[in-house]
Structures are given as structure tokens and as C-alpha cells.
Amino acid sequence: PPVMLVELFFQAACVSLFLPGGQGRVYPGRKKSASFAVERRRVGPHVCFSGFGSGCCPGWMLSPGSGQCTLPLCSFGCGSGLCIAPNLCSCPDGEQGITCPEPPGTCGEYGCDLSCNHGGCQEVARVCPLGFSMVETANGVRCTDIDECLSAACEGLCVNTEGGFVCECGPGLQLSADRHSCQDTDECLATPCQHRCKNSLGSYRCSCRPGYHLHGNRHSCV
């Protein structure tokens, strides 16, 4: 595999351990070069030598813990994955490659816009939720509430809410199961009258048995 060839190349080009006795050897009749004092001498795996000393081989860097060339470098970055060898990433999905695909963002395929109010800011998706429409403003794309009452078929009163609407009915009426139409409430079921009760649309009327007349409060019989 290409990875093994790369590793073999590094092993051939690098010296794993600094050879003992090589450092500071002086031959008779020769002087140390002026640059000898500043030469960098490293010991460990993935160390390469040159006329200026030694350093990490290409594709490797120093590990902060050991000070040896054991950390691989991935030129293209591994995103949410892990760099396991020079330009080789181990990705969260178990795959390996020169880089890892970026995880999908939280704002959908159209990206995010920054929405700020009441002193706080948050990223808002450019794909608006149900009941909101996308509007281009001077500060970018914003999701604004749609006034469904402009087109809602409420039999009674329509109340616009954030992301929707609610139908309401007047006194003596109640909202039907379809949440749009209104139906009469039979107030007589609550026995508001002393003798007799007659329900009407949105209201009711009390009456008395023979020999009685309706009190001024319109409910009691005298």
C-alpha cells in the first residue's frame, strides 16, 4: 500500500537512534567548525541528519511530552478525525485518508446567520422553520413570522402567534374539533335558571312555571 511505501522511505532516509560515539569526534589536524556549537542533535525515531545537524524528518514534529519526533503531520488537516501518520487521517466513520470530511453543520445546507436580540446572539439557520418566511435584510437573511390570519379561515376571531395562528370564538360559542369553526355552547347544561332554561345561539333565556314571574335578575322566579 502507498502508506507502507511512504513509511519505508522515511525509514531509509532517517536514522532511528543517534549512533554512540559519533557526537563530538575530533580527527587529528582538523578543527571543529564554527557552526558545530549551534548544531541541533536529536535522538529518537524519525530523526534526519543534514550538514547543519539533525531534526525531525519531513512529516513529523516534536512531541511536547518526550521531545522526540513522534507526532505525525497531516498537511490537509483531519477535521474531526485523528492524524495517525504523515498525511494519513483516521476518521470517525472508521475510514482512513489524507483528510476527513467535515461533519454536517447545525444550520443546514444554506449556512447560518447571526441573530442578535436582548443582548444575546445565536446562529439561526437560513432554512426557516414552518410558519416563518425568509427575508433579506441589511443585516443578512432573517426568518420572520408569517401572519397566517391574512389567509386563515377562522369562523370567529383569528389570533396570530409565532409560527402559527389560533382561532377563537365569541361569548357563548366554543371552538369546534376542526379548530377553525365555532359551535354554540349550551349554557342551560349548567342550570343557570331557577325554573326553565331555553338555549339560543351564543346565549340563553330563563322563564318560570305558571304562577311565577321572572325576577329582575333574569334568573330567579318569584
Automatic annotation (TrEMBL):
- Look up keyword Transmembrane and say if it applies: no
Q: Does the keyword DNA damage apply?
A: no
Question: Signal peptide position in this chain?
Answer: 1-24
Q: Which GO terms describe its molecular function?
A: calcium ion binding
One of the GO BP terms on file = cellular response to virus
Cite the EGF-like domain residue spans from the record: 184-218
Q: Where in the cell is it found?
A: Secreted
SUPFAM superfamilies recorded for this chain?
EGF/Laminin
Query: Which chain regions cross the lipid bilayer?
Result: none
Predominant location of this chain? Answer: secreted
Q: Which UniProt keywords apply?
A: Disulfide bond, EGF-like domain, Glycoprotein, Repeat, Secreted, Signal
Concerning CDD domains, the annotation shows: EGF_CA (cd00054)
Gene Ontology cellular-component terms for this entry are:
cytoplasm; extracellular region
Q: Tell me the protein's name.
A: VWCE protein
Organism name: Eurystomus gularis
